[in-house]
Specification:
about 425 residues; 2 domains; five-stranded mixed β-sheet; four-stranded mixed β-sheet; 24 strands; binds ligand EPZ
Length: about 425
């Protein structure tokens, strides 16, 4: 088991570069399945989620070459159209690989990715959209078999909810469809725009990404290409919040402020001094943070992935803050560990709300990550707490943050990643 050990109460100060986006990398890696020509991607973060995704591509028969953030892939000899269920369960976002396999081969087999700790996370919207594209879906022996007996024809697809994954899957499945596909009520996240930019560079014809109406005009083939993926906006927000919670001062390079405007507005409302250029964001924390109310919503609203992280910061704000989570049904588990560290938080689970009253001086404790962003919130709380904090199950955090320990150390944190062999005999 991996744990972060943090000696808290140090200011986070200095300059750091943000890494490539986890949530852009996964669907963009999937384009290598859709495109049989050689492709190269840059700025791919070296994290558990990308490693698992690349492992699946190798199992499917792709040639994958990793050279730090540069990934070269050829799926020319890809033969396998089934995503192994044990890997699907390990990483739910592999469901977008299904859209790519379906788009390329007109058939795909995969299993339910399963929920995770933040909610049920069904894929009904994905499957309904595949059916709209003329795909027949059969479920047997806990696998989902998708097949289009004839050529896939573009369709008008209205999403009941602007699902990020479903929007990505429809784009991937419809690139080669005959005719035109329209996605209505599409997700508008920047990662969708990055996916469309990458595919259009390969010769796809996708219009309107970043708006709620996306049009995909079918093409016959894609060409060899390369693409540098966008910066991780949630990692950027997390590092900004690390400075905010420790009364620190940070400058982030490779940042893209326009992808985080709602988060920057809230940090400013809390009293942080924010200055931005085209590709940097600087934050100076005030001595006393002000409480604010947060309500998560699809982009460009306040991102649900930043909800646990800003929640940790708000324990240091003076006054009462209300956080309403509207995207996932179970994304407040980190609050229990913050309470253990001394935070004053009331959970109203039936309303999917928490009420945080500060300012509290957190104290170091042994706490446990229960999901990726909740774990990151506990690391930030540990940075601020007086004493030693041990954040267990750090594997969750390593899924989505590249070199987090090194980045925080450079910024003044006293943090180390400790590996405990749980099978080790009691000494
Ligand atoms: C993506 O997940 C991100 N993951 C999530 O980031 C992010 O929180 C989420 O989008 C929302 O922004 C990746 O991109 C790999 P959704 P995704 O489909 O695609 C419901 C992180 O921490 N829904 O937009 O799974 C679903 O249950 C992760 O980096 C259905 O009901 O999100 C949820 O309540 C966590 N049926 C809501 O929609 C469906 O078929 C949003 O889900 C699909 C989704």
């Amino acid at each position: 088991m991996l744990s972060y050990i943090i000696e808290g109460n140090n200011k986070i100060e200095g300059t750091v570069k943000a890494s490539g986006s986890k949530n852009a990398a996964l669907p963009i890696i999937a384009t290598a399945i859709l495109n049989p020509e050689p492709v190269t991607f840059y700025n791919i973060p070296d994290i558990e989620d990308t490693r698992i995704t690349l492992q699946i591509l190798k199992i499917l028969g792709c040639k994958v070459k990793v050279d730090s953030g540069k990934i070269s892939i050829s799926s020319q000899n890809m033969h396998n159209k089934t995503i192994p269920k044990e890997l699907m369960h390990k990483l739910r976002s592999t469901v977008v690989l299904a859209g790519a396999i379906l788009g390329r081969f007109k058939e795909a087999t995969f299993s339910y990715p399963g929920g995770c700790n933040i909610g049920k996370r069904p894929i009904d919207l994905h499957l309904k959209a595949f059916k709209d594209l003329g795909v027949e879906i059969e479920e047997r022996e806990d696998y989902i078999h998708c097949k289009s007996k004839k050529e896939m024809i573009g369709a008008k697809i209205k999403l009941d909810f602007p699902s990020v994954g479903a929007t990505e899957n429809i784009i991937l499945a419809s690139v080669y469809c005959k005719g035109v596909t329209h996605i209505l009520n599409a997700a508008k996240e920047p990662e969708i725009q990055d996916l469309a930019k990458c595919l259009n560079r390969m010769g796809a014809k996708i219009y309107g990404a970043g708006t709620s109406r996306i049009t995909i005009c079918g093409v016959r083939k894609l060409k060899s290409s390369d693409y540098r993926i966008m910066t991780d906006r949630i990692e950027t927000g997390t590092l900004l919040c690390a400075a905010a919670i420790t009364n620190g001062n940070i400058k982030i390079e490779n940042a893209n402020p326009e992808n985080l405007m709602n988060v920057l507005f809230k940090l400013k409302e809390m009293g942080c001094d924010i200055s931005i250029t085209k590709n940097t964001i600087a934050l100076k924390s005030p001595r006393i943070l002000k409480s604010v109310d947060i309500e998560t919503s699809p982009y460009p609203g306040f991102p649900t992935d930043m909800q646990p992280i800003i929640g940790a910061v708000l324990t240091k704000a003076e006054g009462t803050s209300i956080i309403k989570e509207n995207i996932f049904e179970n994304r407040f588990k980190y609050a229990l560990d913050l309470i253990k560290m001394g935070a004053n938080i009331v959970l109203k689970e039936e309303e999917n709300i928490i009420k945080i009253t500060g300012k509290t001086d957190l104290k170091g404790e042994t706490v446990s990550s229960r999901d990726l962003r909740g774990g990151a919130a506990l690391v930030l709380a540990g940075l601020s707490a007086v004493g030693t904090t041990k954040v267990e199950n750090a594997e969750y955090i390593l899924r989505g943050y590249e070199n987090l320990e090194d980045k925080l150390k450079v910024l003044g944190a006293n943090i180390k990643l400790e590996k405990v062999d749980i099978n080790a005999k009691e000494s």
